[in-house]
Amino acid sequence: MASDAGSSAGDPTLRRRIEPWDFEAIFDPRELRKEACLLYEIKWGTCHKIWRHSGKNTTRHAEVNFIEKITSERQFCSSTSCSIIWFLSWSPCWECSKAITEFLRQRPGVTLVIYVARLYHHMDEQNRQGLRDLIKSGVTVQIMTTPEYDYCWRNFVNYPPGKDTHCPIYPPLWMKLYALELHCIILSLPPCLMISRRCQKQLTCYRLNLQNCHYQQIPHHILLATAWI
């Protein structure tokens, strides 16, 4: 991931940045918000310049909107070479995964890395298979951690002048829980992360349901990082 950053003051990308309160609310891994947001950056060919923008769900999911936008605005032939990084508040659903896989199949010169804040309806087997298909097609899928949140804050958020280090700090536990579940998905294991809503104040509850196969197949360092061994 690139390391360039800069203050939003005088930034030519200012109009393409999102507001701090939007970022804090939509990308909070503890909240199951309906809104979805996609922050993305593109590097074309050997050019070192990074082009950044953002998008949200409309009548279609943000991933599909991105694909249609990028293929319609440029002469995007199959030989076009570029690297794309997505920061998504929700992981792609199975339909979006299918659209992404087809997009990349038609454009072998494109590489895609996806960071996600949360897993979208992760107990749905179609969504789980969709993520596996993405990875099989060469896409890198990872859970956002503190460095990614900080990077997004500095490069995609219209933060007040002098507040470049004031990125919201989320407890690492939620990131680790999602990371553990993503490993289960990749390894075709049963779900281990259970998410529910409490009626009182609509609090989100997370709990793990680890089975023997989880302990046998999930890498030791992943279980160790989530304090389950």
Automatic annotation (TrEMBL):
One of its GO terms (cellular component) is cytoplasm. It is an enzyme of class 3 (hydrolase). Its cofactor is Zn(2+). The keyword Membrane does not apply. InterPro entries: APOBEC/CMP_deaminase_Zn-bd, APOBEC1, APOBEC_Cyt_Deaminase, CMP_dCMP_dom, Cytidine_deaminase-like. Keywords: Cytoplasm, Hydrolase, Lipoprotein, Metal-binding, mRNA processing, Nucleus, Zinc. Its EC number is 3.5.4.36. The keyword Hydrolase applies. Its main location: cytoplasm. It is found in: Cytoplasm; Nucleus. Pfam families: APOBEC4_like. One of its GO terms (molecular function) is cytidine deaminase activity. Belongs to the cytidine and deoxycytidylate deaminase family. Homodimer. Interacts with A1CF; form an mRNA editing complex. Interacts with RBM47; form an mRNA editing complex. Found in a complex with CELF2/CUGBP2 and A1CF. Interacts with HNRPAB. Interacts with SYNCRIP. PANTHER family: C-U-EDITING ENZYME APOBEC-1, MRNA EDITING ENZYME. This is C->U-editing enzyme APOBEC-1. It comes from Myotis myotis (Greater mouse-eared bat).
